[in-house]
Every structure is written in structure tokens, then in C-alpha cells.
Amino acid sequence: MPFVYSESQTSLESGFAYVDDQKLKYLRPKNFEDISTMNILHYLYQFSWGSLFSAPVDEILNSSRRHILDVGCSTGLWILDMAKSYPLARFVGCDMTPVFPTIQKDIPKNVKFVQVNILNGLPFPDQSFDYVRASLFVSTLTEDEWLFAIRELARVLSPGGWLELMEPDYRLCNMGPDTKKFVKGIMEIFRNRRINVEISQKLELILAATPNLSNTHHSIKHIEVGKSGGKVGVLFQDTLTIYFTKVYCEAISQVLGLTQEEYLVMWNNCEKEFPAYQTYCRAYRFWSQKE
């Protein structure tokens, strides 16, 4: 199985790396706080389901020399947790931005990390993996890119193996008036990038229509924002606060015609609306088997 590594990496003191390429159209981490937010997302969804996966892959994971691929692996936490729990399996994580561990002593022997942009194709032969997972592409891919990506994920999957997707729905439910304005601004930003952040509602149909994939299932979790949602809700609100007050602050304030000061006042109002309206979002897992 070939592994292709990029030479264009800049090491950081923690052993992570990042790429600062202005030609990339996607959001990517630029500092340790961004990386910390990516780690929060990992635990947010793990706690929501109480598990690291939903596909019926226990037998695969407990068999020797089975190969597992995580596309969009981010900081690599999912892979590292899985590799510890299933030492017989071999794991490969890939992401277009190498924020995964790069110092060899920090990487288990049954793990490899690769810098890959899935839209350029995966650098693996057909039928290379027994379980393929991809997550958090909903704010990254256009609908046409989704179709290509799923076909590419299915291509590297072995017959009888499982493909699993994990994605949130960016539409919050039970929104207050200021929260609705925020979400409207976010939707406009993504529309300008030709990204449909409601694609998660269509993914089950896309999987079912993909050649050689069948036996498609899904699981939905409702994640309430804030303390009323328990530790998951607190993690979710922390994530929203970081993204809305830092990552998207300038972009959304411009779309809404607000100064950044006015924008932050509106965000503070949103934080008050969350418990009052019991605001929540949906998160999805989908899994299909290759024929």
C-alpha cells in the first residue's frame, strides 16, 4: 500500500504541523487555539454517541492486518483512540492540512498519517481498506465535490467493507431572533462558496445511489446548546463561541452590515437565547457496505 507524504510542512513546537497556502479555499488551522477547537469537535461527537463509530465493524477491527482509513482526520485523535483500542488493525489518517502528529515517537506503530486532498484523488489502490471513515466535510465540499469524494471513498473500500460518514447539520433548531440572523449570515457565506451546508440531509440518498454501495443506515443525535445539554452541550457552545467570535467574526459581521462591536453584542444576545429557546442542532452518522 503506497503512502505519499508532502514536503511542504512547517513544524510547530507541539509536534503538529500546518500549511499556510493562500490558494486553498477552505478554512484551516493557523494556531494552537484552532487546533484545540478541532480537538473539542472530536470529543463533542464522541460524547454525543458514546462511541467512536456506528458501523458494524467490530469483527474487522479485532482482526489482524485489517486496514482502516480516516479521511479528514484533522488532529488525528480519532485514529489515535482507535489504534489504542484495536491494536491488531492498521490505521491510515489523511487530511489536506497536516495538523496530525508528525513526530514519529508520538505515533503508534499501527498508524500512518498522510497529507492528501481528497479532491485530487486518494493515493491508494482500489479495495485497499476494510473500513473507511470520513467526517466534517459539510462546510468544505460543494455538491459536485461530494459526489466525487464518495465515489473515491468507495473505490478504495474492499468488498464487504464499510464506509461511514459523520456530519453535522449547520441549521440550528429552535432559534431566537438574533440566532436566526447569525445563521442567515453563515448560510450566505457558504452559498457564496457554492457549498450547501444542508447536504447532510441528502447524504443517505447519495450513498444509496453510489455504485456498489448498499445496506445504508443512519443515526441522528440532537445536541442542545449550553448547560441544559450536559457536557456535550457545553462543548458545543464553546465551539460555537470560538467559531462565531473569532473564525467567522469578520466575515459574518460584513454580511450582516455590523461593526465587530455590534456583532459581538448580537452574539452575547444569542448566548442568552440558547437556553431560553432550547436551541439544538442535529448530527448524523451514515454507513454503507460495499458489495
Care to describe what's here?
This protein is 38% helix and 21% strand. The protein is built from nine helices and nine strands. It has helices spanning 32-49, 58-61, 77-85, 143-155, 177-192, 203-209, 230-247, 249-256, 260-277; strands spanning 10-11, 17-18, 67-71, 90-95, 111-115, 129-135, 157-168, 213-224, 280-290. The longest helix has 18 residues, at 32-49. The two termini are 22 Å apart.
Topology diagram in text:
Blueprint (H helix, E strand, L loop, with lengths): L9 E2 L5 E2 L13 H18 L8 H4 L5 E5 L5 H9 L4 E6 L15 E5 L13 E7 L7 H13 L1 E12 L8 H16 L10 H7 L3 E12 L5 H18 L1 H8 L3 H18 L2 E11 L1
Parallel strand pairs: 3-4, 3-6, 4-5, 6-7
Antiparallel strand pairs: 1-2, 7-9, 8-9
Features:
single chain; 291 residues; alpha/beta; 7-stranded mixed beta sheet; two-stranded antiparallel ribbon
What is the structure about, briefly put?
By secondary structure, the chain is α/β, with parallel strands linked by helices.
Helix/strand-derived category reads alpha/beta
Task: State mean pLDDT (0 to 100 scale).
Answer: 86
The topology string of helices and strands comes to EEHHEHEEEHEHHEHHHE
The proportion of residues forming helix, as a percent range, comes to 25-40%
Low-confidence stretches: 1-32
Question: How many angstroms separate the termini?
Answer: 22 Å
Task: State the shape.
Answer: globular
> Taking strands numbered 1, 2, ... along the chain, how are they ordered across the largest sheet?
5-4-3-6-7-9-8
Radius of gyration: 19 Å
| Count of separate DSSP helical elements | 9
Strand content: 15-25%
Say what oligomer this is.
Answer: single chain
Largest sheet: 7 strands, mixed
The tally of beta strands, per DSSP, is 9
